[in-house]
Design brief:
The protein has 15 helices and 21 strands. It has about 525 residues and is α+β, with helices and mostly antiparallel strands. It has two domains: about 45-255 and about 510-530, Periplasmic binding protein-like II (D-Maltodextrin-Binding Protein, domain 2); about 285-500, Dipeptide-binding Protein, Domain 3 (Dipeptide-binding Protein, domain 3). Helix 7 packs antiparallel against helix 9.
Length: about 525
């Protein structure tokens, strides 16, 4: 068991975690209508025609992060750009839905999954999408992206439009595990001599045109898109790192929308609402913001001090005052968007008196210092600086003197890896909608993030549950395992949820049908300018 789980930990993209955890991240799917699926299979979809508009259809979206990765990532671009498409995407209930796969089924013991592929789809370079493309892309993504398929043994081509995933052990949740980034399809003809993509050539409703370094990404409509052409002819994603400058650009009409997780600040919502030319929107997303402890060294190697710090945090107050109501108090380490898995009866409680009693029990009147490090790149997207100051004041009442240090992203990562910290804050997105995406990385003692970020957390029972849950075919039993894991984490507090993200975003009044989904993916295939 440990062998296949170690595979789980070999590679994981920090940029996505802090951009996926900071950020794990989403692309727009085509407008579709359901058809009747074959017995035992998932629903398929068929395209819905669109009506061309007379007005020039160019949309500029301002962002607080750069969504161009280039050749350092297999898929080149973030999924929000709708250039590449996955086999499967999650809907707003975090249930797997078809995109380039049309249906799927598993064998009785969950070791073989058969995926039926959409026919008649072509990559932007004219190359047909088929089983060969799946067999090329999926293993590469597992090697370098996030190893969401620790049990993958091999891929088998049944015919041009049928692929079998052969698993080493039962895998009851495979469609969830390959959702979105984990099954991004890039043209086999886009590979260079080193076997890696040289350009982001996908099957999506938009084609990549140009990247202007640290400024913008330019896309144009794919008129041959299998789902029918989008209404927008051209989309520009403009990178504007400063939140005030982003909003000013929207107000003046330099950009048409601010549409991404963390790109519009809660305190800016009232400015948008008061402007008759702007529209404020919001969407609950699968991102949770955490306070994490270094459990491997004093003072938070003592579980009682971790419990005390957690109990001194007024999460409802954070949402009401710091987030201006745009958020939900942290109730679980599993996002509430994953409704079938979340357990809220073990939510962290606010109890300053109990917190003081625990701290006194540990410190006996002495004071200790704790270093809280912040990622500078996150401060322009979320109010971590304000939250850290609130935490600093509350912890001082416990006898814990919190020293706040802001680090550039690379230095922050290095400090975590070296264990040179006591506390930090970070977002994490449950990109697959499956609890193992969190438990197998954060809670398992050999988990990638547990080790790479020096959480120093180990619990023998938790390890047993993580390993058992990943291959448990009985969904009710799986739920019991994850319920117990959530209770263990709530009790031992190696990390604690601060709040669950409600993303606010805004458009100019003439922008229609631009919406974000639970993975903060904009609906570029549906949007238009009126």
């Amino acid at each position: 068991m440990k062998t296949f789980r170690r595979i789980h930990t070999t590679l994981f993209i920090i940029g996505l975690v802090a951009t996926l955890i900071l950020v794990s991240g989403c692309q727009a799917t085509a407008t579709t209508q359901p058809t009747t699926p074959p017995e035992g299979a998932q629903a398929t979809t068929t395209p819905q025609p669109t009506t061309p508009l007379k007005k020039p259809q160019e949309l500029t979206i301002g962002l607080g992060r750069n969504l161009y990765y280039g050749p350092k990532k297999w898929y080149f671009l973030h999924g929000s750009l709708a250039v590449w498409e996955p086999l499967v995407i999650l809907d707003n209930d975090m249930v797997a839905q078809p995109v380039l796969a049309t249906s799927w089924e598993m064998n009785e013991d969950g070791t073989v999954w058969t995926f039926h592929l959409r026919e008649g789809v072509k990559f932007h370079d004219g190359t047909p999408f088929n089983a060969d493309a799946v067999i090329l892309n999926v293993p590469k993504l597992q090697e370098e992206y996030m190893t969401t398929l620790p049990n993958l043994d091999s891929l088998e081509k049944v015919d041009d439009y049928t692929v079998r995933f052969i698993m080493k052990e039962p895998t009851p949740n495979l469609p969830q595990l390959i959702a979105y980034f984990s099954s991004a399809m890039i043209s086999p003809q886009a590979l260079g001599e080193d076997g890696r993509p040289t350009a982001p050539i996908g099957t999506g409703p938009f084609k990549f045109v140009e990247y202007i370094e640290d400024d913008s990404i330019i896309l144009e409509r794919n008129d041959d898109y299998w789902g029918g052409p989008a209404k927008l002819e051209r989309v520009i994603f403009k990178y504007i790192p400063d939140a005030t400058t982003r909003l000013a650009a929207l107000q003046t009409g330099e950009i048409d929308a601010i549409a991404d997780v963390g790109s519009l600040q809660p305190e800016q919502a009232s400015i948008v609402e008061q402007n008759p030319d702007l529209v404020l929107l919001q969407q609950g997303v699968a991102t949770t913001h955490y306070l994490t402890f270094n459990c491997g060294k004093p003072p938070f190697d003592d579980v009682r001090l971790r419990q005390a710090v957690s109990m001194v945090i007024d999460r409802q107050g954070l949402v009401d005052n710091t987030l201006y109501g745009f958020g939900e108090p942290g109730v679980s380490v599993i996002t509430p968007r994953a409704k079938q898995w979340v357990r809220t009866d073990v939510a962290p409680r606010y109890d300053p008196q109990a917190a003081k009693a625990l701290a006194e029990e540990v410190l006996d009147g002495e004071r200790v210092e704790a270093k809280l490090i912040l990622h500078s790149g996150l401060l322009g997207r979320w109010p971590y600086e304000n939250i850290s100051q609130i935490l600093q004041a509350a912890a001082a009442e416990l006898g814990i003197d919190v020293k706040i240090e802001t680090l550039e992203g690379g230095a922050w990562n290095e400090a975590l890896k070296a264990g040179d910290y006591n506390l930090t804050m970070m977002p994490y997105t449950l990109m697959t909608g499956d609890p193992d995406f969190f438990m197998g990385r954060w809670v398992w003692s050999e988990g990638d993030l547990n080790q790479r970020r020096s959480y120093g957390y180990a619990n023998e029972r938790a390890d047993e549950l993580v390993i058992a849950a990943i291959s448990e075919m009985d969904q009710a039993v799986r739920k019991e395992y994850y319920d117990e894991l959530q209770a263990i984490v709530a009790e031992e507090v190696p990390f604690t949820p601060l709040y669950h993200e409600v993303t606010i975003y805004a458009t100019r009044k003439n922008v229609k049908d631009l919406r974000l989904d639970v993975q903060f993916k904009p609906s570029l295939d549906k949007a238009y300018i009126e």
